[in-house]
Amino acid sequence: MQIVLISGLSGSGKSIALNVLEDAGYFVVDNLPATLLPQLVATLRGSGYQRVAVAVDVRSGGSIAALPQQLQAVRGIVRDVRFVFLEARDDTLIARFSETRRRHPLAEGGVSLGEAIHQERDALAQIAELGHRIDTSDMHANTLRTWIKDFINVEAESGMTLMFQSFGFKYGIPMDADLVFDVRCLPNPHYDPMLRPLTGRDKPVIDFLEKVPEVGRMAEDIRRFVANWLPSYLRDNRSYLTVAIGCTGGQHRSVYIAEWLARRFKDSAQVLVRHRSAARRDADRAAAGK
To answer: Is this structure's pTM higher than 0.85?
Structure first.
């Protein structure tokens, strides 16, 4: 049996994640009080359900504080338990609530939207550390759908899921990053008109970067750092570790190095690779019909 637990901030994309899981054949339960989680899992397991997705968040009230203990209890029942925590910047959440005109679940009794978001973020701070965090700020819905599909398709094995994520500093540092490396000091293919529209996954950009000795040294230094400290994160019982690689626009250098690192670690950990800013660019072009 596989359990996917979804939590996070209101407006961060939990409904999108649940829809993806339901379309993939999961039995979906939304807005479950955390205290009922072990009972629900035991009941559904006894009824023969194989894949279940459950959303638990502040709508369940004070019971959300019990989620860490209930999550531990569920892992005593089911081996394959995955936890996704969705979050976003305050300005992104405010914009989404303004666009949809929905009311924040904590915006009651004269509490403003901004205050409600801060209250919710404080209430979920400890819970966020328990799962695989995804920052959906400025993220298109299709990108989130793809990332959720990638997450549930990772094989359930002991150990850690290691995620290498490229991003552009001009869009801000991802909130879900555990380790951040800045590669903006490396030569930028953006200044070559032939390379500008490409990404770090395209051969001309790869060839350009591989000819620069500093690129290889930087990539190897990051690889060595992650390899040296990965055992410490494993001893800390971490299930997920996100290593973010940033360049100016998140299109060339960071993409190349994220892919390079993913290949180096594929035999020692469960590896995911994501390109935040490159995915944003592709989605924008698709929306524009280019």
So the answer is: no
